[in-house]
Structures are given as C-alpha cells and as structure tokens.
Amino acid sequence: MTVLYVLDVPENTAVAKVAGQDAAVTVGQLGPYFAISSDGPIVIDRRATGCRHAVWYSCIAGVSRDSRITQHDKDALRVERR
Fold it and tell me: At the top level of its lineage, which domain of life is listed (predicted)?
C-alpha cells in the first residue's frame, strides 16, 4: 500500500482534500497527520490544491516504508509503491 503523511494544519488541508477526490485514495488520521493511502499511486495536482509553492514543497511529513516519491515539482506530487 502507498501511504503519504501530511501534517494536519490549516495550510495543508487542501492537499488532503484534493487527494481524497480520487476514488482510489483514502484520507484518514494518524495522530497529528493526514494519512493518505491507496493501493496504487497517489497523484496530487498542485494547482488544484491552491497551495503556494512554499506550502507545497513543505507539506510532506513522510511516506511509508513501501512508498517512494517519484515526482514533487511545481505541477504535482506523485507517490508510488516501491
């Protein structure tokens, strides 16, 4: 399973909200983090989140041991299974 952790603060809420719009993605809570998970890749479009670049590039708290970030640029964040 692919899992992305994002700190649950107001600035990052849009990241979790946009990720959750994908029917294959589940957004839950793990302590102070959004736990965004999927059996497949997780792809989040930056423009859809409305995040400024500074927030966008600092939103990632971590990924699960079986996941890796394959794209994190001004366009999108993509996390896939290793």
Answer: Bacteria
